[in-house]
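Working notes for the structural subgroup meeting. M.R. asked for a predicted model of this chain before we commit to crystallization trials. I am recording the input and output together here so anyone reviewing the notebook later can reproduce the run.

Input as submitted:
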Amino acid sequence: GNQYQAIVKLNCIQGQEYAGHLCINQMEAEKSAAQQAVAAFAPQLATLPPPLSKDPARKKKAPLTPQQLAEKKARQAEEGDNPAITPKTKLNTLVMKIAKRYLQKGETVYECKKYASGYQATVKLAALPGEWGNRAWAGHLCSTKQKAEQSAAE
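Returned structure, recorded in token form:
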């Protein structure tokens, strides 16, 4: 049968090369070569400090118990604090239920106009049946285009 061998070249360290063992597939061969390189630098790696989190705000928290997790989920459901569930996503979901199908590109159209005191958006929902598909709904005057579109969806 076929056997594979890979070589890893470390350009960052004067192009040093490390060959892995013969393996049954390419992925295992590449893994073996990487392990050889790591093994060669084990003494230096052992002296390095543990990696720091890139985000200082993210500290390891104790894992939640099933009870605490259930309480957290219930609180989020009550408060509706899932940032992914916006008025636009709620409107999309509602229109799909009414149309009984997925929406196609261009069936929900937001138009935003800039005024001296802010932005105002309208939304047209072509997927709605009958005359509803030709109507437009306007939102409140808002400070940003995104907020205006969310307002039109409410």
